[in-house]
């Protein structure tokens, strides 16, 4: 009755910059529950970024090491319901006794305790008891402790005793690895260009990435076709409604801005700083290549510049591609991103 799902383990929890600290702290805790200074261990991050997977992987790893350690996973919502029921049924004593026997308590989504004073009091009591007895506590939350509203200060200060680690959205390479891992475990083949396309396109959260993958597989099965880029684009278009399906000036400006870490406003502005000028020229170059806008219109969208400025930009970028390998590589990456977008 530990409530753990065995499918959530470390083997299938792909490592990346997005989760390195949280993941390795999790492994350390699993190897020595209650003994490391990571007590409590608090994992936080946005929806679908792998909190539940990680905290359950810790629990499963503790269970698999053959130690005598009673691991309990419970969502904060369930904890609250159990507690409320216990009050109603006059069962507080057995509720408390049950929780005090736990060796490793994993409590998911503690933001749910917000505003629930009585539940927080109960949890505070259990937390203190377990912690004093060297038991491990692992928590997750959808935001950093300092941003948790409606939680009592004394509880928040306890959360800071141990280690707090965040989860971010995986970068492109990690997303590729997640997709490939999923392919492997499901025994499904997905061509490389489709894997790349999905990893490029779905940058919201991992659950959504998995959702797109599942729909794609379902579509292919239903239509009795192979999985290919065309189908992937179609599938994504149906799922993600607000996705622009066309490479337009806005999209190019946004992509180039992100790539060079420059704001879109700067791209349109008069600034003559070298790195901004180069990024602006790259953006103009891509607009010429990927949109049907006239040179005049492109110039207009970059702060009302003349069409001759656009011609000059296109020429400069072409020249630089010839002489600067690193620059050429950047252009290739951006072009790839543009092609991925085109349906
Ligand atoms: P959260 O609890 O933060 O909302 P979940 O733990 O439910 O997110 O993760 C959403 C989905 O994404 C799950 O199916 C999970 O297995 C998967 N997932 C998240 N991060 C990773 C990762 N690093 N490697 C593999 N799968 C991941
Ligand atoms: Mg969760």
Could you explain the architecture of this structure?
Helix 5 links the parallel strand 3 and strand 4. Helix 15 crosses helix 16. The chain is α/β, with parallel strands linked by helices. It folds into three domains: 147 residues, Rossmann fold, CATH 3.40.50; 67 residues, Orthogonal Bundle (Helicase, Ruva Protein, domain 3); 93 residues, Chromosomal Replication Initiator Protein Dnaa, Chain: A, CATH 1.10.1750. It has a five-stranded parallel β-sheet with strand order 2-3-4-1-5, with helices on both faces. The radius of gyration is 26 Å and the shape is elongated. Adenosine-5'-diphosphate (ADP) binds next to helix 2 and helix 9.
* CATH superfamily membership of the largest domain: P-loop containing nucleotide triphosphate hydrolases
Stretches where pLDDT is under 50 for at least 5 consecutive residues are: none
User: Roughly how many Å is the radius of gyration?
Assistant: 26 Å
Q: Which structural category do the helix and sheet elements fall into?
A: alpha/beta
Continuous helix count: 16
How many strands in all? 5
Q: What is the third-level CATH name, the topology of the largest domain?
A: Rossmann fold
> What does the overall shape look like?
elongated
């Amino acid at each position: 009755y530990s409530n753990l799902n065995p499918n959530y383990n470390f083997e299938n929890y792909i490592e990346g910059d997005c989760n390195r600290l949280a993941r390795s702290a999790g492994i350390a805790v699993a190897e020595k529950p209650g003994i490391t200074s990571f007590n409590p261990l608090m994992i936080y991050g946005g929806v679908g970024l792998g909190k539940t997977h990680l905290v359950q992987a810790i629990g499963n790893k503790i269970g698999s090491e053959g130690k005598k350690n009673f691991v309990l996973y419970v969502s904060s919502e369930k904890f609250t319901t159990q507690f409320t029921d216990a009050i109603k049924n006059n069962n507080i004593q057995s509720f408390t006794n049950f929780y005090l026997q736990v060796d490793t308590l994993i409590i998911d989504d503690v933001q749910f305790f917000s505003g629930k004073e009585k539940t927080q009091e109960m949890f505070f009591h259990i937390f203190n008891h377990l912690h004093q007895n060297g038991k491990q506590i692992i928590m997750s939350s959808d935001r950093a402790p300092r941003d948790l509203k409606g939680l009592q200060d004394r509880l928040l200060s306890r959360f800071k005793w141990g280690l707090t680690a965040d989860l971010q959205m995986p970068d492109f390479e990690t997303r590729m690895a997640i997709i490939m891992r999923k392919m492997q475990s499901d025994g499904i083949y997905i061509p490389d260009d489709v894997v790349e396309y999905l990893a490029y396109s779905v940058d919201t959260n991992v659950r959504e990435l998995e959702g797109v993958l599942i729909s794609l597989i379902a579509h292919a099965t239903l239509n009795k076709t192979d999985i290919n880029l065309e189908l992937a684009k179609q599938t994504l278009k149906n799922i993600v409604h607000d996705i622009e399906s066309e490479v337009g000036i806005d999209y190019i400006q946004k992509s180039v801005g992100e790539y060079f870490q420059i704001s879109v406003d700067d791209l349109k502005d008069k600034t003559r700083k070298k790195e901004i000028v180069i990024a602006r020229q790259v953006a103009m170059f891509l607009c010429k290549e990927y949109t049907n806008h006239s040179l005049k219109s492109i110039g207009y969208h970059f702060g009302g510049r003349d069409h001759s400025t656009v011609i000059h930009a296109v020429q400069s970028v072409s020249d630089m591609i010839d002489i600067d390998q690193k620059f050429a590589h950047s252009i290739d990456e951006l072009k790839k991103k543009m092609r991925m977008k085109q349906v």
